[in-house]
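Colleagues,

For the teaching module next term, I've prepared a clean inverse folding example: a structure given as tokens, and then the sequence designed for it. I'd like students to try predicting residues themselves before seeing the answer, so please don't circulate the second half yet.
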């Protein structure tokens, strides 16, 4: 038996044909045809006016912060529980990340925690739709409005989801996606930046193309900037995946149901939540072990690995990572972010790759129950 992968895409003949067509035809006058179709299609799907295809979500967040004027001396509030890519660009622009706690039910950034952290230097908030779920955006938007903060929605893990009728990736001043190979919709590597604001859009186009405006004199740059572009082959792959987005997200939701049924009645674990009004697209189907069991995620992960089952740890609080050892906010975060620090040690992502069959999911659930029982007895 092959190892059961934790993440991975669902590629069909359509993707292969689009990429083949791009390799053959997307040159000369047609060099941008797939970018244009992918950007237009994505903006329409999400319901935003403008979209820019980029090499990664990390570069999208970097551009977003620059376009919003976030700079050295500013603070940006980020979730303590997320992939570091959500927060790393804050450092690129010379600003300071400040770490907000998560909500215990959605696992997303807590608006209440954000509000407590707002200070005179706060410029922006980056909210993350963690594992395909959605934070309390009504409350986050009202905090941002009251304090004059910009809001970036990091929807990298939530393609296809929605919050109270708004598609994931349509919220805030700027929203961003990742199309890394692990994500629900993939280009291999890639990202997207979306906004309704014409000025932000123009500024991002300028900054991502070495500081030149369209129509300006050739090789005559106004500012030193960046080169952030994806290739036509990636855009073609992304377009094919976008045309299958309903199928991709339906499979994730179906897989969640397979797990939920197979694990029903198992004591001491909880799965991803879905609040009324939210459509969770379960990028990573995950469990939290009841902390009273005293079973660390790492011990369950290695037990499952022996059955050729790959899992991932629930994100460690960013404020606990060596990367942020010099950040002045970490002692406060470790003390106040009780949900992030209290729950992260007991969470893991189960295999959620789009290629998995129901039989494989049931195998994982079976081994999970057996290993959990034996760790319980040892504990
Ligand atoms: C994957 C991911 C990113 C980074 O995406 P890249 O395309 O790898 O730069 C950013 N934020 C979140 C929440 C992610 O899951």
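(Answer key — instructors only)
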């Amino acid at each position: 038996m092959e190892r059961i992968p934790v993440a991975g895409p669902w590629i069909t003949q359509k993707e292969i044909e689009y990429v083949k067509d791009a390799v053959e035809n997307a040159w000369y006058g047609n060099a941008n045809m797939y970018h244009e179709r992918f950007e237009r299609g994505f903006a329409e799907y999400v319901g935003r006016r403008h979209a820019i295809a980029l090499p990664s979500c990390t570069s999208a967040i970097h551009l977003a912060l620059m376009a919003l004027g976030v700079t050295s001396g500013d603070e940006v509030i980020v979730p303590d529980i997320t992939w570091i890519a959500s927060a790393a660009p804050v450092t690129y622009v010379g600003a300071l990340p400040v770490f907000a706690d998560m909500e215990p039910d959605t696992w997303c950034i807590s608006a209440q925690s954000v509000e407590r952290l707002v200070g005179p230097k706060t410029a922006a908030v980056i909210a993350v739709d963690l594992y395909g779920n959605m934070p309390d955006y009504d409350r986050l938007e009202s905090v941002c409005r009251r304090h004059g903060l910009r809001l970036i929605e990091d929807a990298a893990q939530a393609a296809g989801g929605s919050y109270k009728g708004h598609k994931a990736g349509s919220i805030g001043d700027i929203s961003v996606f990742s199309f890394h190979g692990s994500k629900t919709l993939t280009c291999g590597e890639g990202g997207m930046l979306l906004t309704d604001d014409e000025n932000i859009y123009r500024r991002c186009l300028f900054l991502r193309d070495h500081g030149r405006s369209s129509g300006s004199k050739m090789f005559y740059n106004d500012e030193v900037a960046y080169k952030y572009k994806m290739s036509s082959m990636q855009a073609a792959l992304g377009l094919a995946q976008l045309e299958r987005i309903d199928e991709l997200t339906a499979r994730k939701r179906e897989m969640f149901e397979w797990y939920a049924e197979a694990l029903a009645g198992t004591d001491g674990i909880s799965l991803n939540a879905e609040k009324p009004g939210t459509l969770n697209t379960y990028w990573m189907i995950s469990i939290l072990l009841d902390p009273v069991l005293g079973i660390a995620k790492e011990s369950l992960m290695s037990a499952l690995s022996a059955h050729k089952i790959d899992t991932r740890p629930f994100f460690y609080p960013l404020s606990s990572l060596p990367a942020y050892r010099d950040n002045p906010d970490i002692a406060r975060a470790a003390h106040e972010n009780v949900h992030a620090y209290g729950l992260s040690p007991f969470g893991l992502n189960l295999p959620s790759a789009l290629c998995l069959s129901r039989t494989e999911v049931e195998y994982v659930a079976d081994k999970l129950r057996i290993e959990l029982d034996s760790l319980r007895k040892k504990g």
